[in-house]
Design goal:
Elements (H helix, E strand, L loop, with lengths): L2 H8 L7 E7 L7 E8 L6 E5 L8 H21 L22 E2 L5 E6 L13 H17 L18 H14 L9 H10 L5 H7 L6 E3 L8 E3 L5 E4 L6 E3 L1 H12 L17 H15 L5 H5 L1 H22 L11 H18 L1 H10 L2
Antiparallel strand pairs: 1-2, 2-3, 3-5, 4-5, 6-9, 7-8
The structure holds adenosine-5'-diphosphate (ADP) and magnesium ion.
């Protein structure tokens, strides 16, 4: 993307000051993002994003969700005491024609956010202090949206964590066996099936009305939290997947991605384990904020939610492997299978430490 193009796109938005420079920012895998600096130095900088239209088909609905949620967060932040005035809510910038995204002649969709000054994000959770801060940040996000009607949001990715739908797709893919890979993964298939019933717990609770549908973030990765120079978490970004859901999905995915001693696609399974100190730190930060409004039934399943999210993501990697690698980008033959195995190893480690995980949740509630 040439600078002239970027300048042209930025000029579609109502920015303060003048364009100075553009540089890629972050290591997100979904959108393309640039830091747009401006002059004079006392006006805000911006983050320009090319929205991944292949994943997010309905950009107007996506944008509506983000507007609804950020407006609510901002208003609510003004009203609550809770000692969180330091929290920053990112804001979409309007185009000159009054929209919140720009559709260019090549078919690309663009949006602009205010850049949160002097912040950074981490791809890897380096220590419990940072994990605790991330737990607080996602806790604050859930606290501030706890009185927003989740059903007023558009379901951007329908049935995203719907275990019954995912298992149906898995079994159908096995039946079709399009890449002729089924016979090589019988152990993994058995692993999935032996846990399938248990993994319906959250869905059942939801369907029985025992856990509430809430506003959820659905991408609670560590690098979607912004830290200030003192390593205090001050914002949550990446609001594309904000949808109605169960908070258990958000908590579980944060643990799956943030409290793993190995990489998501680690080949050496001995390196993959649940890091209980990071789990404890994240849970303590999260519960410090959320303990007083979450329902008992939600808290009861927090530890389980980490197992659930690890299972369902492993299931999706395995399904994609059997299908012939169509959904996730792969770097080499068997990459999806390696990812699935790493998730299943993480799940086994959580199973081994499940009692301790539950005890940790109990301590902080
Ligand atoms: N408003 C912002 N202020 C500062 N940094 C940001 C902002 N928005 C995004 N970033 C940085 O850019 C990265 C990628 O943005 P993100 O919205 O998470 O895109 P992706 O969906 O590709 O992950 C983030 O991890 C963060 O480091
Ligand atoms: Mg991101």
């Amino acid at each position: 993307m040439s600078v002239t193009n970027l300048i042209n796109i930025v000029s579609q938005f109502k920015i303060e000051g003048r364009f100075l420079s553009a540089a890629p920012i972050g290591s997100g895998h979904i959108n393309d993002s640039w830091l747009i600096t401006t002059e004079p130095s006392d006006v805000p900088d911006y983050v320009l994003q090319r929205i991944n239209h292949a994943i997010f088909r309905d950009v107007p609905e996506l944008t509506n969700n983000i507007l609804k949620v950020t407006r609510h967060l901002r208003q609510r932040l003004l009203c609550v005491d809770a000692g969180i005035p330091f929290f920053h809510i990112i804001q979409l910038i309007q185009t000159r024609t009054g929209n919140y995204f720009f559709h260019d002649t090549d078919g690309n969709y663009w949006r602009l956010y205010d850049h949160v000054r002097n912040t950074k994000s981490y791809d890897i959770v380096r220590n419990p202090a940072l994990a605790r801060e991330a737990g607080k940040a996602f806790g604050i996000f859930q606290y501030l949206t706890s009185d927003l009607d989740a059903t007023s949001l558009f379901e951007i990715l329908p049935d995203f964590h719907h275990i019954a739908a995912r298992l149906t797709a898995f079994r159908e893919t096995i039946r079709l066996n399009p890449a002729n890979r089924v016979s090589g993964v019988s152990d993994e298939i058995a692993f999935v099936e032996s846990r399938a019933d248990e993994m319906h717990s959250i869905l059942r609770l939801g369907e029985q009305g025992k856990i509430p549908l809430r506003v959820t973030h659905n991408d609670t990765k560590f690098n979607n939290v912004l830290f200030n120079t003192a390593d205090k978490a001050i914002a949550v970004v990446d609001l594309d997947t904000v949808m109605p859901g169960y908070i258990l999905y958000d908590f579980g995915d944060a643990i799956r991605t943030g409290a793993n001693t190995g990489a998501e696609d680690e080949a050496d399974l001995s390196k993959v384990n649940i890091d209980l100190s990071l789990f404890e730190a994240y849970a303590s930060g999260y519960l410090e904020i959320t303990d007083n409004f979450l329902e008992k039934s939600e808290i009861e399943y927090l530890a389980f939610s980490a197992k659930f999210m690890t299972y369902i993501i492993g299931l999706r990697f395995l399904t994609d492997y059997i299908d012939g690698d169509h959904y996730y980008k792969t770097m080499f033959q068997g990459h999806n299978l390696q990812r699935a195995r790493a998730q299943f190893k993480l799940l086994q480690s959580m199973e081994q430490h499940f009692r301790e995980m539950r005890e940790i949740i109990r301590i902080y509630t």
